[in-house]
Amino acid sequence: MSKMPRPTALAITGLFLATPAFAAAPKIDSGDTAWMLTSSLLVLMMTIPGLALFYAGMVRKKNVLATLAQSFGATCVVTLLWMIAGYSLAFTPAANASANQFIGGLHYLFLGPMGVNAVSPFAPTIPETVYMFFQMTFAIITPALIAGALADRMKFSAFLTYMGAWLLLVYCPVAHWVWGGGWLSSLGALDYAGGTVVHLNAGTAALVTALVLGKRIGFGTENLAPHNLVLSVIGASLLWVGWFGFNAGSAVAANANAGMAAAATQIATAAASIAWMAAEWIASKRPSVLGMISGAVAGLVAITPASGYVTPMGSLIVGLAAGAVCYFSAVHMKHFFGYDDSLDAWGVHGVGGALGAILTGIFASHAINSSSNGWLTDGNAHQMIVQVYGVGAVFLYGTAMTYGILKAIDWTIGLRVSREIEIEGLDINLHGESVQS
């Protein structure tokens, strides 16, 4: 029997180093941090100036500044509320003593506990300040999307109040359910970058808002066509570019998942624009510029929940489906039911977000992301059921809470401008300014 070699001091030291008595502190990665700062700025650009210009070009000239003010005002209000309580309500982990499966706690109230070198359990390779900022930009654009349904007729004071209340009472709880370790996350619902949290959530609120506010004066009898589609094309283009921060940034790292999410985003967006264009070409005998950019946004919306889970072929199918379905919902369904969703926030974001969330359950590939199993791709019908369940839960909660918020504002300060102001225009009456010829 041979004699065992005597262990050296180096070997003993290595043994202890390999099995530390406590877990090593998370290491902040400079590459991930740089990418997430860039992604945060791209998403902020989606609201100002992207969404602001996209919506402003589609209203009449007398309401352009008021529409721009809505996106800018929402950015300011949400930023402050996110710092005060929003981030805490959404992203205090459910394991924290002050949180639960339905709402986060007040651990991060005023961001007090967030030190310079702190990291979030949801993003261990970047400073928590960066993760908070990234999520802030999502929180900004989500309520701002609702403005597409209330264009031309809501008081600015009511709008700002609505944005703040909706952020805290609707967006933050739903974000916690899906991304903050809440109950939908525990069920296994997949939402890579916000199909339910952002788009279905905002789209549902938009539909409720359109119904509560009522139709614009002249809806169905007067020409309410966009006054400057050049602004809308510029806005849509900024949205398209900024969306790579939205989807690829949701990898929360500069890695392969970010790369695949970026590729899926580009493919789906182009496919949806082509699909909308084709549908409009068949129905109206010509493709409109408004249709092309609306189709692109529909593709961006639908691929958002799926971007980090689907193959390039899956993203192509999602995009084609989004273009066709959202064309029908925005152009035909709105006219059939007679509601005035001014800029098609429900038809594009609500319907597109729900469609994308459900298609995620069909096409999510384990080969792309180990946490996903789609119905067709990996034979997991359970995922499809979970996705539908999540869509239903967000829709029902958003409908009830949004209705309550709007009614409370209407009973106190009032929601809608007077008939005289609406006819003359919001710019001159609400802001004392107008766009000159």
> Given the helix and strand composition, which structural class is it?
mainly alpha
In the CATH hierarchy, the architecture is Orthogonal Bundle
> How widely separated are the two ends?
100 Å
Instruction: Outline the low-pLDDT stretches.
Output: 1-23
Helix content: 55-70%
Profile the largest sheet.
Answer: none
According to CATH, what is the class? Mainly Alpha
Oligomerization status of the protein chains: single chain
Name of the CATH superfamily: Ammonium transporter AmtB like domains
User: What is the average per-residue confidence, as pLDDT, rounded to a whole number?
Assistant: 92
- Our count of domains comes out at 1
Return Rg in Å: 23 Å
Strand content: under 5%
Would you give the CATH topology? Ammonium transporter fold
Shape: globular
Order of helices and strands: HHHHHHHHHHHHHHHHH
Structure commentary:
This protein is mostly helical. Residues 1-23 have low confidence and may be disordered. Helix 4 crosses helix 6 (156-179). It has a single domain (30-431), classed as Orthogonal Bundle (Ammonium transporter fold). It contains 17 helices and no strands. The chain starts with 8 loop residues before the first helix and ends in a 6-residue tail after the last helix.
